[in-house]
Amino acid sequence: DFLKLFFWTLAVFSLIFIPTVSQSAFNENPVLSQSSYNREWMKSIPEETPLSAIAIPGTHESLTLYKGLFASYLQSQVWNLKDQLNVGVRYFDLHSRNWIPKKTIYVGYSHWLIGKEIPLGEVLRDILDFLENHRNETVILKVTFHKLVFHNNKDAEDLMKTIIDKFRSKIWTNTLAPKMKDARGKIVFLKTDVFRAGTESHDSHFFEHNRLTNVEKKIKNIKSNLCERHIMVTGTSASTTEKPIKLAQKVNEQLYNFLKQHNTSSENHGCLGVISMDFPSAEIIKIITELKPYMWSYNY
Question: Phosphatidylinositol-specific phospholipase C X domain spans which residues (predicted)?
Answer without folding.
Answer: 47-192
